[in-house]
Amino acid sequence: MNLGKFPRRGYVRTETPIEFLPNFSKALGGKVNIYIKRDDLLPGCGGGNKTRKLDFCIADALKKGADTLVTCGAVQSNHARLTLAWAVHEGLDCHLVLEERVKGSYKPEASGNNFLYKLLGAGSISVVPGGSPMLEEMEKVAAGLRAKGKKPYIIPGGASNALGALGYAACAQEMTEQLFRIGLDIGAIVLPSGSAGTHAGVLAGIFGSNAGISVLGMNVSRTKQAQEELVYKLASETAELAGVSHPLPTSAVTCFGDYVGTGYSLPTETMIEAVTLLARTEAILLDPVYTGKAMAGFIDQVRKGAFPAGTNLLFLHTGGSPALYAYLDLFK
Ligand SMILES: *Cc1c(COP(=O)(O)O)cnc(C)c1O
What we know:
Elements: E1 18-20, H1 22-27, E2 33-38, H2 50-63, E3 68-74, H3 78-90, E4 93-100, H4 113-119, E5 124-129, H5 134-147, E6 152-155, H6 162-182, E7 188-193, H7 197-208, E8 214-219, H8 224-241, E9 254-256, H9 269-282, H10 291-303, E10 312-317, H11 321-324
Parallel strand pairs: 2-10, 3-4, 3-6, 4-5, 7-8, 7-10, 8-9
Antiparallel strand pairs: 1-2
Helix pairs in contact: 2-3, 2-6, 3-4, 6-7, 6-8, 7-8, 9-10
This protein binds pyridoxal-5'-phosphate.
The site of pyridoxal-5'-phosphate has 20 residues, from α3, β7 and α7.
């Protein structure tokens, strides 16, 4: 892979830390050593994984002469917040289309990311019912903007196309270099798997560099099978775009569908336990929608003895803690 040939904006100025979690590892029985990759500390207002993907996508938008970004997400979308934040940074307008995946969940006065949409000055916010064709909805907004003489560029949900996923192929390279420097042999990388750009990009990067580290995705919305198909397709496209010459085997994709609970963004008991445990052992904040559920799945696998004693494991912290403040009632 030669990722240097793709234009990007340079939002990721330095590598994010890999830290050992001694207290958390001990709280889980001490048989495995758990490390965390702190992508919650990426630059961008509030941190989180979308910055790596937007680095490539917004470079493409500017190359194509755009003056406005249009994107979509759920009502408490970290991706919408970060797209807006980088748009502000670049002097671009930004319009958001929010999908109300849980009926009645859009509250104009809500805290968390919703508060930040307003503080950061979103050009417009349109809310559409769950299940709406989001690309078409964004096209409608873009058509309206074009009629006013603007040059909109549409970024798909989560910036999860092959171009955006390159950001996580780059992160995979970053992680293998760091692990080499620390001298650490990792058995598996565990990450949340949502719109799939993170999972697909890491997979493409690990596969493309023959690192042989398994990548385990914890689903936040879909079933195991649906998510594995989504990840496989995007990871294959990403690997191809990155110039990886061998096709990705389907066996490289592993997703766990058991930790979603009743649906996307809906709380589970084990998510609350995971968020609370990491806060109280390491003072690191997770989020209720993605990293909390992914960590709950990881904790369950560790407790079930899925990893041999002595294994080093790396959890990719994709951010999202600004959303915590929209879910205060859960943690009372
Ligand atoms: C978007 C998001 C994810 C999921 O990443 P995808 O690339 O969409 O799979 C995980 N964690 C947080 C905090 C996110 O905002």
